[in-house]
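Sample 1 of the test manifest.
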Amino acid sequence: MAQGIKDKVAILGMGCSKFGERWDCSPEDLMVEAYNEAMADAGIGPEQLGAAWFSTHMDDVGTGRGGTPLGIALRLPNIGVTRVENFCAGGSEAIRAAVYAVAAGACDIALAVGVEKLKDTGYGGLPMATVGTYIPQWYPNAVAPANFAQLASAYQARHGIEPALLKRAMAHVSIKSHANAVKNPKAHLRKAITEEQCLAAPIVAAPLGLFDCCGVSDGAAAVIVTTPDIARGLGKQDLVTFKALQVVTSNGWELHSSEWDGSYVHSARIAARRAYAEAGIPDPRSGISMTEVHDCFSITELITMEDLGLSDEGGAVKDVLDGAFDADGRIPCQIDGGLKCFGHPVGASGIRMLYEMYLQLQGRADTRQLPNPTTGLIHNLGGQPSQNVCSISIVGLEGA
Amino acid sequence: MIGITAYGGYVPRLRLSLQAIGQANAWYAPQFASRKGTLAFGNWDEDSITMAVAAGRDCLGPDDDRSRVRGVLLASSTLPFAERLNAAVVAGALTLDENIQACDLGGTPRCALAALSQAAAMAQMDEGEVLVAAAESRRTRPGSAQELQYADGAAAMLVGTEGVLAEYLGSGVVTADFVDHFRAVGEDVDYHWEERWVRDEGIAKLVPPAIAAALNRAGVAAGQVDHFIFPTSFRQMGASLARHCGIAPEAVADNLLAAVGDTGGAHGLLVLAHVLERATPGQIILLAQFGSGAQAIVLRVTEAIRDFRPQRGVSRWIARGAEDHSYTRFLSFKGQLALERGMRGEQDKKTALSTAWRHRTALQGLVAGRCEVTGSVHFPPSRLSYDNPPRQDTQRPYKLADRPAQILSWSAEYLSWHPSPPHHYGQIDFEGGGRILMDFTDLDVGEVATGQAMDMVFRIKDIDDLRGFRRYFWKATPARDGQA
C-alpha cells in the first residue's frame, strides 16, 4: 500500500517572475528572474542541485523542446533536466517529479521551473494547438474559451439556473480576482473591475465575456524542494511541506460515453477525493485554509468549488455571490489574483499557484496576507472539461 | 420495368435577397437594382459534393442497409476535384458498398439527363440500382445577369427495376457544339453569348428534335404529356417549346426559378423531384434540358408513386429557406471576397491522406463502433471500449448519421477565425449511445440550447487553401421540419 507523500518533502525556496506582457524579456530572462529569487530564498548554490524538471507547454513560440532550454538559460552544472508537458497542468508535473525524486532519495535537492513566453505570437489568446493528424479531420478547431464555456450551458441545464444569475456569479468570480490582484505587484492585471463592466464586456465564447477569461501572460516560476531534515539543516524554519500530490487523467469516458452530463469536471472530483485521503483531511471545508484553483475561465472556478467539495452541488452560484471565496470569505480563493489576473503563462502556472500558497503559509504575502492559514490547496487543470489532466496538491505547515 | 425507384432533392437553407444584390451593385449595374425575389445559395461549407450527399440521403432514406445501390453517377459542372473521384466521396458519405461503380459526369447542364439514361442502361444490364446525383454550385461575376439567376442545389434519382415509381420509356438526344456559354478549365465563371441568339437559334431549334425523338421512342404523343419540365431562365421559353412541340400549355411545370433559382446541371432533376411529389399514377412526364445540344427523357408514373416519400423532399427543403440580406456574406462564401482573417486564420489545414484513408469509415460515413458485449457506442471507433473493465476488439460498425441526436453542451465563439462567425460547436449525444464534440452549421445566433434536437449533415470540414484540398466531415444542425 502506497504511503503517500505527506510531510516527506519540504519547500526550500521559491521564486516567481513578474507576469504580464514582458515584451523586453526572452523566456531565458524570465527563467533567470524566477530562479534567482528561488535560489536566494533557498540560500544554496547551483552545485547543491541534484536534478531539475522543466515545464513548458508551447513548442512553437518562445522556449523550445527538451531540457536544454533550462539547462542553458540557468547555466546549470550539467545536472539532468527533464522537460515535462501536460497541457496547463505541466507546472504541477514538474513539481511532482522533483518532489518524487526527493522523496525517493534519488537526490537531496531538486529544482522545478516552469516558463511560457506567449506574447511572441502576434495575437491575443493562446496559440492554436496542434493535435496530430486524425483529430483535426473530425474534431472542431476548438479554442479554450468555447471548450470551457460549454460547462456553463450544461451546468445551467442541470441545475435549472437562470442564465442571468449564472452570468452574475461568474462576474463575481472575476471581480474578486481583480480586487485581489490589486495588492499583488507581480500580477499581470492589477485593476479592480465592476459588475457592470463584466456584464457589458464583449462575448468571447457564449456566455463568456472578456472578463470571464484569464490573462495570457509571459512568466516563469521556480521551486526548490528537499527533505524536511535537510531544510532544517540549512537553517529553515516554519517548513511548508507537501501533504498530497494527485494527478488524474481522463480516459475518454466523458468524451465518448453519454454518462457524463458536462456540468462538472470528472477528473477534478477524483483528484480531490484522492488528495484529501492522502493528506488526511476528512472535511475540506474545515481542513483547507485557502485555495489557488485553475480559473482559466470564471465558470471553471465556479464549478471547481463544487468539484473540490467546498460548495454543495448546484450551490456554488449562491456561495460565490455570498462571498464565500472572497479574500475575507470562508475559504479565500485566488488571493494572488489567480490565472485571471496574476496571469497564465501556461507551463509556469502550477508553480505560481504553489508560490502564493508558500508565501501565505510563511506569512510573507505582504498586504494580501491572510490570517494564520495552515493548509492550501492547488488545483491545476490541463486540457478541457471533457478530456483533461487534473492535478490537485495540498501543502501546509509542517505538522498541520 | 426500368425506371426511377426513389427520388430526393436538396436546396440549401440560405436565400439571398435579389434586392440586396441589386442595391449593393446599383452604382455599377443599375439595370438590376429593382429585382425582387431570392436565390438559394450554399453555406460556406457546402459544395456540389455535400449537396449531392444531402440529395442522396433525401432519396435513399435513413435505412442502414444500402447494399441495393450498385452504382453512383455524379453529374455536375462544379465538382471540387478534377483528379479524385468526386462520386467516391459521395459514395463514402452515403456508406455505399465499396464494390460498386462510381463515375463523375460533367461538361454540360444536360449531363444529369445523360446520367439518368446511363443508369437505366446499367439497370437493364442487371447491375442493380444506380444512384444518379446532380449538384451545382456555380460562381458568377458580381454585377452580371447570371448573379441574379444562378442558384445552388442538388437532386438524386435511384434507377432500378424493382418498385419503379416512374417508368423510363425512352430518350432522345441531339449533340451539337452550340456554344451558348462556356467555362474553360481553371476559370471561375461562365462566358455567355447573346441571349436572343441562344433562344432562337439554340433552344428553339435543338430541343424540339430531342423531344420528338424521345416521344417517338416512348411511343407517346405530345398531347399526352402531363408534366413538361424544361429548365431555362428565359421567360416563356417552356411555354413556347410546348406550343411548338404540341404539348398542352398547362403541362408546363413550374421550373422553380422563383423558389430556388437556376441550379444548372442539377435543375432538371430538381424540378423532376418536385414534380414527382405530386404526380399521379399513369401521368406522363417529359423532362428536357439544353446544353451542347439537348436531351429529352419520357417517364410514366406508376401506382407505386403513392407509397413513396423522400426523407424531406424538395417542397420542404424550399419551405425552410432563410432569407439573407448580406451580399458580402454571399460573396465570401463563394470565395469571391477575401475578408480579413487575422493571424488565427493562418493555421495550416493540411490533411494527412494516409490518416484519412485509415479512418475512412468513421470520417466519411459517420460510422461509430458499438461494443457487441455492452452496447456502448464509440466515436471514433477504438480497439478498447470505455466500459469498466474495457472490452477489446468488440466494436462493430454502427452508423450514426440518421439517428436522433441532441445537444449536451455548446458554445459560440468569436476568438478563432471561422468563415461564418461565431463558430458554434458542442457535445452531441445520440439516441442509443454515442457522443461527439462536433461543429454546428446552418444556424443563427441564439438558436441553440442544451437538449435541442439536431440532425447530422455532411459538410466541408476545412479548406486547405495552400494545396487546394478540402476535407469533409459531419456537422450538427438544428432539426427543422419545413421551417427555417
